[in-house]
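Regression test attached.
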Amino acid sequence: MVIAYLVVPRDQYTPFDAHYFPGAETTTARLSEPKNYRTADDPTDVTVLCAELACWVGDELWLSDPKSIGELVEGDLKRADLPTTNHVHCEVQRLGSVYPVYEHSTVQARQTIKNWVGQPKRIMSLGRQGLGVPDNLHHVLTMGSRAAEAVNKSGSIDVIEWQRSLGEFSKHVVQD
Ligand SMILES: Cc1cc2nc3c(=O)[nH]c(=O)nc-3n(C[C@H](O)[C@H](O)[C@H](O)COP(=O)(O)OP(=O)(O)OC[C@H]3O[C@@H](n4cnc5c(N)ncnc54)[C@H](O)[C@@H]3O)c2cc1C
């Protein structure tokens, strides 16, 4: 995933926490404005937008320069009838592994891993990639605590306890 931070010289871009773009006509999948998530001592003359652009490591988008990525996001926002940002800077972070990817071609492989994850012997798998779920931060923190609790003093895994926790995790509902 390419994450583009657009520095915008105004107090607020829109009053919304995030805009979602599920269609294929935009490269940007989500645009969030962190300032809107909180009440804090933020500067009043600037806001920063966080655009998430899904891609594969090494593809054309991954290799694009920050200026082009900023222009691409700007074009996406225009197509979505959102205001121009007039951003003065675009800071880019490239993350090789962010969201689990559900490809048709990997259905069987993911099922095999799911079966294996539920019967741990010496290795526990958890978190977004570890369980193939798009969970929130508080969800994965809970997973970490539950994993620690499922390990006995001898170092062995309490499989029944862990399976109970996996059942709880499956009820997680993603929040924004
Ligand atoms: C832009 C953005 C905004 C978000 N905002 C919020 C929010 O406001 N509130 C909220 O609750 N959640 C938010 N989330 C979700 C939150 O970031 C995740 O729920 C959380 O980070 C998941 O934790 P994790 O440990 O499962 O995975 P990660 O934090 O993704 O950690 C996995 C780690 O494993 C590494 N890794 C992956 N593959 C390999 C490999 N093959 N070998 C070695 N290392 C590897 C990765 O580099 C990464 O460091 C946001 C996510 C994004 C992308």
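Expected vs. actual: identical. The pocket of flavin-adenine dinucleotide is lined by residues 3, 50, 52, 97-98, 127-129, 135-138, 140 (CB under 6 Å).
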